[in-house]
Amino acid sequence: MSLRLRLQRGFHKFSQRLLANLDSKKRLWIVQVDEGGLKNQSFIVDEDSFQQPLDWMLKRHYSVIDLENVDKMKCAEMVSVQLENAKHCLIRAK
To answer: How many CA atoms lie within 13 A of 2 on its CB side?
Structure first.
């Protein structure tokens, strides 16, 4: 099994466990940021903490098309966004 596949499976298991313990009123995403090599990070992005819809994504300069795709995401759907220096993989959790 490739390292990438193991990381994806581990990320999925982590996100499922985490979601079982979270209570959010609005949308919730789990975002994995891959900057290449060993520079990977994961975030929980909770719309309850936004000042406006998709605030976190706007601050990271997502394109209009990427913002539309993220906005239309359904629960458990995954979207990848390629930015200049990183790839963001988002899973809509709620």
So the answer is: 3
- pTM of this structure: 0.69
Let me know how long the chain is: 94
Beta strands in the chain (DSSP E): 28-34, 40-46, 78-82, 87-92
Full pLDDT tens readout for the chain, 94 residues: 677 788 788 888 777 777 665 655 688 999 999 988 777 899 889 888 888 889 999 999 999 999 999 999 999 999 999 998 899 999 998 8
Amino acid identity for residue 57 in this structure: M
Question: What is the residue range of 68's domain?
Answer: 3-92
Domain count within the chain: 1
Cα–Cα distance measured from residue 92 to residue 16, given in angstroms and rounded to the nearest whole number: 11
